[in-house]
Structures are given as C-alpha cells and as structure tokens.
TrEMBL record:
InterPro entries: Rieske_2Fe-2S, Rieske_2Fe-2S_sf, Rng_hydr_dOase-A. This is Rieske domain-containing protein. CDD domains: Rieske_RO_Alpha_N. Keywords: 2Fe-2S, Iron, Iron-sulfur, Metal-binding, Oxidoreductase. The keyword Membrane does not apply. Residues 90-186 form the Rieske domain. It comes from Capronia coronata CBS 617.96. Pfam families: Rieske. It comes from the Eukaryota. GO terms for molecular function: 2 iron, 2 sulfur cluster binding; metal ion binding; oxidoreductase activity. PANTHER family: CHOLINE MONOOXYGENASE, CHLOROPLASTIC (PTHR43756:SF5).
C-alpha cells in the first residue's frame, strides 16, 4: 500500500514542488557563476593577475600609457578606437541573417558606422556607411532589403557592390570619374561556419584566430530571433565577463562535469562570444561600444536546422539574457572605468589591450600625430573645390527643386574623420 502511494506521488508530482524547483533553478542560474567565481578568486588569487602577465609580451614592450592619470575616460576610449577597434578583426553576425540579395544590416562600433549587404552575386560585402559626397549616411535603418543605397542630399546612389551608379549634375562635370567615388569598402571574412568578421584597417588581411571550428559549429544553424540590450557600463567590464564564461566552460572544476553536462561557450574575438543556451539553441553576444560608459550588447539566437524552438522558450531565453546583462552593469558589480584591465585568448595566446594601447601611443609619439587606421583618403583639394562649386550651383537652382540645401562642410574632404 505504501509503495503504491509513493509511486503515485512520483508519477504525478506536486505542482508546488515543481514551482520550488523552477525558482531554485533560476536562482542557481543567476547566482551560481558569481559565487563560483568568488570562491575561485579566494582560492586562487594570483590567476587573474597571471592572465594579464602571460600575454606573450615582455614587460619592457608592454610598458604603460603615457600620463595615464591625466587621461580622461574619453581620451582612453578614443585611443582604444584608434589602436584597437580600428585594427582588430571583429565578429559582426552570422551568414544566416541574409536570406536574399539586397538584405543588409547596419552596425556602429565606437562611432564607426558601417553596413553589410548580400549582393546579387550572393557575396557579402561591407561598406562604411557614408556618402562620398557629403559624408551623410546612406543606410538609415538597422536592417532591410535594397540593392540601391541613396544619400539624401543630392541623390548620389550606390549599388550592392558599392559602385556609384547615379550622381545628378556631377556626371556632367569634366574630369568627374564615378568609378573613383564608390563607397569605401570594409574588409570582410566569412568562415566556413558562416561567421562574419570585419576589419576597418585595410592593410590587415589575416584572420587572427583559426580555431573556431574546433569549438563551435554554427554552419548548420539558422537565425531565430534577437534582442539588443543597452548597458550603462564600460565595454571591458562585460568583455571580461565573456572571457570568464568561456574559461569556466572549457576549464571548470574537476568535479563539475560529473554533476551535469557543461554548456559550451567560446570567444569570437575580443567583443563577442557564442554560447549554448540549451540543446539545439545557441546565442551570439556582441559588444557595440558607444562611449566610455555605455555599450550595446546584441544577442542573436540560432537554432539547429530542423529544430523548432517554441516561442515561449525564445522569449524566456531573451528575458534571461537581458537580466544577466543588466545585472553586470549594476553599480555594485561594475566600476564603469576605462582603466579596467582587459586581456583575451586568441589563437592560443593572450592579447593584452593595454599593451596594444601603449604601443600605439608610442607610435603616435614618434609620428607626432594621431594614427587612425579607419580614416580614408578621399580626393584632392582641386577636385574638392570643383565639387563644391557644382554643389553651390545646384543649391542655386529653382526653389521648387526637391533637393535639400548643401551642408557647408567641404565636399570630398581630404580625410574622413571618424
């Protein structure tokens, strides 16, 4: 009799018991990793320090920033923009986000605006999101579908390969060459798994990591949904958390795998990671720094092909990701300081951010100017004056014209400042 009652209770679990289990699981999800990290820091206090010291650069080469105490957070952020964001391969998105020719997605990293578009030849290309005439944005939506991109000023129009196909009045000017005035292309690499990386430094061609395949295979996945979360903190605070998650995923305590199967998490460069949310469901998380105290985190969910993810599960995972990120940016968990150390694993070695900043600062001191790899030379001063004259003539036409007044900013600027 007692045995039958016990089996009946097990076969029909109490709803209150299930509720307790759900609450405890959620608390373990939110508090488990911080507690483990805290315990690890107490047991192994030198691990964090060692991760920055073993960067492959000797101390003399690493050095430090010149007059760091006198630099503001904005100064450091702009230096990071010139020395790091402009010269590093950064994960952008997955190939499955582009279904048909003309599909595009726009991004902004530390003020560098660009977009990725799928051409009619089914090739992905990336371009700086500025018109060659007045440096106005040609893509004004975060995503969409178009094979033509137009500037709002004088109707300059570009195709999906960045070529200038329409320039009203300018094509009548002697010496004007449309082929020389296409959109500035951004270096782009798509891996076999469909991972898309961009680099704003035209001289950099080598992808700095080649072991993504050994950890993550998103080639057989498709895009499900996504969410963007704005966090009031410095980007390095969340980037360090990404590194910690990936480190714990690959090197947890020895007894941990025996309790449960560890979910995979892997870095996709310095600003991104991909992690397993549940069986058949993955998420890429990408940092889009806006300022020293603000960063947007783009979270995109991908499912294994053939796996139908219930809408309830998708919304639940998005909610949990948002709560996790907002918790990281709380005042009690983040100092929001640009001086936060940051190092990440890449190709089997540790990359130290402050070593990169110090080296770039020394190069600028030797060059006696700011070195900005994302700047592009556009044209000569002579052509600039000619283009300005044409622009003024267009502005002086019939008042009924639909064209907007020109900006007084010099057309065809000699350099493009980000």
């Amino acid at each position: 009799m007692a045995t039958s009652l016990f089996l009946s209770h097990v076969a029909r679990p109490d709803l209150a018991f299930l509720a307790y289990v759900s609450v405890l699981s959620f608390l373990a999800y939110c508090l488990g990793r911080p507690l483990v990290k805290f315990a690890h820091a107490l047991l192994y206090p030198d691990d964090q320090k060692a991760s920055y010291q073993n960067s492959g650069l000797d101390q003399a080469e690493k050095g430090g920033l010149q007059k760091q105490d006198e630099m503001t957070d904005e100064d450091i952020f702009q230096l990071e923009k010139r020395a790091f964001f402009s010269k590093t391969w950064l994960f952008v998105c997955h190939r499955s986000r582009f279904d048909k020719p003309g599909d595009y997605h726009a991004f902004d990293i530390a003020g560098i605006s660009f977009f990725v578009v799928l051409g009619k030849d089914l090739q992905l290309r990336a371009f700086h999101n500025i018109c060659r005439h007045r440096a106005y944005t040609v893509v004004r939506k975060p995503c969409g579908t178009s094979t033509r991109f137009s500037c709002k000023y004088h109707g300059w129009q570009y195709d999906d390969e960045g070529r200038l196909v329409k320039a009203p009045k300018f094509d009548e000017s002697p010496g004007f060459v449309p082929e020389d005035n296409g959109l500035f292309e951004v270096k782009l690499i798509t891996t076999r798994e469909g991972l898309v990386f961009a680099n704003f430094d035209a001289s950099t061609m080598k992808l700095p990591f080649n072991n993504v395949k050994s950890h993550v295979d998103l080639g057989s996945c498709s895009y499900v949904d996504g969410v963007s979360v704005t966090c009031a903190t410095n980007w390095k605070d969340i980037a360090n958390d990404f590194s910690s998650q990936c480190q714990w995923s690959q090197n947890p305590f020895g007894w941990f795998p025996r309790l449960r199967k560890q979910k995979m998490a892997t870095l996709l460069g310095p600003l991104s990671m991909v992690k397993e949310l549940r069986a058949g469901l993955w998420c890429t998380m990408t940092l889009l720094p806006r300022s020293p105290t603000e960063v947007v985190v783009r979270c995109d969910l991908y499912a294994r092909k053939g796996y139908q993810v219930p809408a309830r599960v998708v919304e639940q995972q998005k909610w949990m990701l948002e709560k996790e990120l907002l918790n990281l940016s709380k005042p009690d968990t983040s100092d929001k300081s640009s001086r936060t150390p940051f190092a990440y694993q890449c190709g089997g070695r540790t990359i130290d951010l402050f070593a990169i900043l110090a080296q770039h600062e020394r190069n600028e001191k030797l060059a006696k100017k700011k070195l900005q790899p994302a700047i592009r030379i556009t044209s000569s001063a002579e052509i600039d004056e000619e283009a300005a004259a044409i622009c003024d003539a267009i502005d002086g036409m019939d008042e009924t014209t639909s064209l907007e007044k020109c900006s007084k900013i010099s057309s065809f600027p000699q350099t493009l400042e980000w």
